Predict the 3D structure of the following.
Amino acid sequence: MIGHGFMGAAHSQGWRVAPRFFDLPLQPSMHLVVGRNPDTTAASAEKWGWNETATDWREAVERDDIDIVDIVTPGDTHAEIAIAALRAGKHVMCEKPLANTVEEAEEMAAAAEEASKKGVRSMVGFTYRRVPAAVFARALVEQGRLGEIRQVRAEYLQDWLTDAEAPLTWRLQKDRAGSGSLGDIGAHAIDMVEYVTGAQLTSVSGVLETLVKERPLLGEGVGLSGTASTERGDVTVDDVALFHGRFDNGALGSFEATRFRTGRKNAFRFEISGSLGAISFDMERMNEIEFYDATAPDLELGFRRILVTEHDHPYISAWWPTGHMLGYEHGFSHQVVDFMTAIDEGTQPRPSFTEGLHVQRVLDAIERSSHDNSAWTTTGK
Amino acid sequence: MIGHGFMGAAHSQGWRVAPRFFDLPLQPSMHLVVGRNPDTTAASAEKWGWNETATDWREAVERDDIDIVDIVTPGDTHAEIAIAALRAGKHVMCEKPLANTVEEAEEMAAAAEEASKKGVRSMVGFTYRRVPAAVFARALVEQGRLGEIRQVRAEYLQDWLTDAEAPLTWRLQKDRAGSGSLGDIGAHAIDMVEYVTGAQLTSVSGVLETLVKERPLLGEGVGLSGTASTERGDVTVDDVALFHGRFDNGALGSFEATRFRTGRKNAFRFEISGSLGAISFDMERMNEIEFYDATAPDLELGFRRILVTEHDHPYISAWWPTGHMLGYEHGFSHQVVDFMTAIDEGTQPRPSFTEGLHVQRVLDAIERSSHDNSAWTTTGK
Amino acid sequence: MIGHGFMGAAHSQGWRVAPRFFDLPLQPSMHLVVGRNPDTTAASAEKWGWNETATDWREAVERDDIDIVDIVTPGDTHAEIAIAALRAGKHVMCEKPLANTVEEAEEMAAAAEEASKKGVRSMVGFTYRRVPAAVFARALVEQGRLGEIRQVRAEYLQDWLTDAEAPLTWRLQKDRAGSGSLGDIGAHAIDMVEYVTGAQLTSVSGVLETLVKERPLLGEGVGLSGTASTERGDVTVDDVALFHGRFDNGALGSFEATRFRTGRKNAFRFEISGSLGAISFDMERMNEIEFYDATAPDLELGFRRILVTEHDHPYISAWWPTGHMLGYEHGFSHQVVDFMTAIDEGTQPRPSFTEGLHVQRVLDAIERSSHDNSAWTTTGK
Amino acid sequence: MIGHGFMGAAHSQGWRVAPRFFDLPLQPSMHLVVGRNPDTTAASAEKWGWNETATDWREAVERDDIDIVDIVTPGDTHAEIAIAALRAGKHVMCEKPLANTVEEAEEMAAAAEEASKKGVRSMVGFTYRRVPAAVFARALVEQGRLGEIRQVRAEYLQDWLTDAEAPLTWRLQKDRAGSGSLGDIGAHAIDMVEYVTGAQLTSVSGVLETLVKERPLLGEGVGLSGTASTERGDVTVDDVALFHGRFDNGALGSFEATRFRTGRKNAFRFEISGSLGAISFDMERMNEIEFYDATAPDLELGFRRILVTEHDHPYISAWWPTGHMLGYEHGFSHQVVDFMTAIDEGTQPRPSFTEGLHVQRVLDAIERSSHDNSAWTTTGK
């Protein structure tokens, strides 16, 4: 595993727990964690249970006893590591967004395709696809329960920048993070909606905005937290991304990714509206989904709150009895299950780097539209 | 109309509005309002649009140009007025609870039965039966959508006595109100659940409790409000009524009527659980009902939030388009519709005085059980 | 009252009920209802309690015994009637949107201003401003409880066109309705958000789309219902309006007005996010509002569901005890109260025709932006 | 660990994960799992990561390299194992309910007290106390935010016996399970409410009922699932337990534990109502709690939905950023944290066996009351 911040903790938990609850075809062992700072890396290795540490990711790529490279570093380093690992024949799991630029993502997708011919697998970490409710939503759409999909709404609402004195972490710096709310959480909204509907965005019209343009520099610390210093720096990424999109199936979409919706902590919500039904979901209530069946008798029309904890729901039978809740990190176990299964079966795990590239192109089209007075911009799909 | 407090306002609104939205077979006119105090009665008459006033209810009973007597006085006066009116051939609508004692209620039911033979109609004002969601719930049960009903929960939660200095109005005096939360709101819970399930309580085990035993006497004012004086008096009714009950269909019920559930203003809720489904309702969201269909596919099980505003829902087509809300007083219009229709058609309006008597017997059995260490007590049904 | 469709019923109920629950400074009487078809107009007059009927609105304008003209006709007729009425010295209440074009709205606003100098009052019927929760939301913003407002979301979601065979009523014809979801419900979203925040939209970027382009012609009927004929016609208005906006206070807004959000009946929702707090509202639960106070202790942060039924909440003391629900039509009574009060006090009732004109300009800017590839377009404010 | 069913899985996950996220003063290692059937025990050992297996629990008690015995067997075996382990100087964690009878529980509590003098710790596994929302609720009460507590409602609603053909597992047999809904889930309700309020039940009046008296015998399988055979047997435990209780602080409580509330899967809910505020919780939304502060200004009264995911909330800082959900099994990690901390610090972990005994006495009093026509029965507190 390359990197060991917030995502490193989540991935580690996935690698540790998945084999206990699921019958994996291949058993992962947690060999090596890589980080620039030897001390914090060693601490992470001990905390999260990795056998060894290194400070250069090339070690992971070069070692023969390593089959899988899991990349959880900031987006600017993804391309170099992933391409090297794929060329070295390592299966690669890469955190989202795939890269910080379309060019990098294209190279990565090409490398992944090349590697795939030799049986080397790769996958992007859009973990929210693995929430059972999301898989179930996808199934409802596939079964035609929503009919023709006409409108889509997705919003990913946070409020951790509402405080104008929140420090300038790497996530607020364009050179490290690529973009702000757009790439961090907007990317989830795009991937999720395309996954659930099976449709792809062909053009977008959007606006990115930085509401608080200057913040205190980060004193020390990693991840989302960290103390503030007395100096200030420019916020070079967007605080809010609003965009509309057209899908290849004719549907119209409306999206919002923001760190300024006061009181919303991790409110990743989507609603898919079709001619026969609708689905509504909120990650703050991730064990539930609402389904509206427009073919029900008039008197019984309504959104049904389905607890996605029945044994036949995706992934659920491995866990607890009906009505017992899953949490945030369960998706990381499910990701391990699906990745190991694909490696074992020799199939392409989803989302592929090509899918990750597509999301990157949508992100890029939104940025271009924003710079072009919100003119409609094709995603190049 | 005899009386002109809070209920007088609600009934007046029913009489005025019903003929505008519904095609009534008979047109009501608002002749006479009766109250002890000529000044406040005159003010009410003007405010609520009654043509004339009187200070003695006997006038209403004796006048030839009056066909209907609507009784909205405190419970201790119901029997005398209703019986006189029925004997004088007036149709009688009487607010709930029917009376303060079983004896009075028996006399009233007997008088109603006698009058009925001469085509004189009578009805108890359990208005909540007229909320469209309640009528719809009854229909679901009648259609067998819940299967065999096994468990019932009903609670009517208020908090207006949480303040230990709230004044001692007539509703807290046993000689005027008969009982406290039990008769005022517990009666609604009993009537509603029996109406929706079609079953009747045969025995009960309960406890009544007065949590704040002394309060400031009322200085002046009517109804729920009024200023407090400096003297104090004993609260002679219950603040909380908790009881369990067995129904004639084998179901088990659990009930709570209370004025001490902090933060709950008018949370009249019930949930009916059967072998094939369940219904859940909350009067604070009176335009919605939740329906669980246990025969749905396992993966789609869930409570469906039905907005009871489709045109085919009961009473709705007379009002607004789908999705537009009804409020508290609409039930009083619906009550007028049903009462006038029954008079016109010569049928027994529901709930009859006999049904009101049954509720009175249940209330009485609960009081007796409470005095008897919560021993199970038959309702005499 | 000119017109007698769905809005005519709602306004009639306002005129009838308001004087009963509120102490109005002036007593309205319901003189004359005007409609083109003498038979249906006579039926409406009887049903809704108007003394006389006419087929030409000029009669209302010319009669000396009429002081107030209430216009509830489709938008294409508003300008002519309102201007004539104002010039004749009648106070005018005019349904929203003020007109079908900016030009008409400008003339109306000019006429209103002229009339105002002679003490003649005019007002636009954005009734949702009169929902107690909305007035309360406005008060929270005015008191600074939300701090600096940075983001706004408003959506008005309906689904009555989800059925591709729903008939082509006047609301789907550009020459009658002016626009589709944009003017019908998007106008509400704009007015509400500007009212609550006290800010005005200065520029917009949006897209209008007609998802179902052809529908069966209307056989017969008025209002939202009506049977379908076998011929088909073009839908000439938008089914969906999506737009982003910038406010004069620097806030960013995201809007959606649609008749295609399956399962949403009248889900008029808004959320206002500021540096110190947020407000969230849904008209399908119109007696509630959610308020997030970001200044609360960290451990107690959360959206508070406030039942807007306490006696000190706006308009409430005239109605029922705490916890008893108001419905859709109560806003029309409140509108009467505010209009009559303004006439009596000689003040400008809100929203004025000038405010209505501003909404019209925003609507127009959205249409222009939509035709201009969603380019940002100033509202001319 | 003695036993390896559903609870064994949950406890194993606690032992494995807790050391990764929390800085434990002592590091647990997962030595030995004990089960009667060597094959299934070996399978469990491998699945859940235990080093060794045994078929006789005495081995665990006798081995020197074992310091902690974790008992997750059915209730009829708790006493013998726990007492032996405590006497052998092992710290004991014992699943709830503590025992099947008051007598056994008394012996266990005595043994625990004896062992405690030698520094040997013991604790009952009421894991729901470790849900962050529950700890937070306790803190609100301790800080006096609810004022004087007057009413309590707790309900634990399931529906897995709604199907009359659900098989007769050990949980439906009195000799194995001790009682039905009462001991299985009612015990949680009692413990939780006493924990949160700090008050104890002194007397109860209740009724236990078996709604479906005969079920198919279990063919094979463990835990909650298992296939049905064609033979039938008597259900010897209660399906529903309804009871009222009086607390030592004067509050009145109402309780329901049932496996027949159709549509409710694991709806463990409680609401605590005091003179200054109220708390409302539902385990199906375990990351949220609702808090009503009655001291707020009248206009702002309402239940606040607090997401219990801020870093200062109990246990949360070890997990994920704000707004990321915890699931069912996190409580088992928290239990390990608290148990290990108490062992290290030499303090009494809570709930103690004495507290477990108290719950047992309440359960027993409810059973006796049920047999005594629901007469009020003291808990012997």
About this structure: The mean pLDDT of chain A is 94. Chain A touches chain D at residues 6, 10, 12-13, 16-17, 20, 47-49, 158, 160, 224, 264-267, 283-287, 307, 309, 319-330 (CB under 8 Å). Residues 202 and 380 of chain A are 7 Å apart (CA to CA).
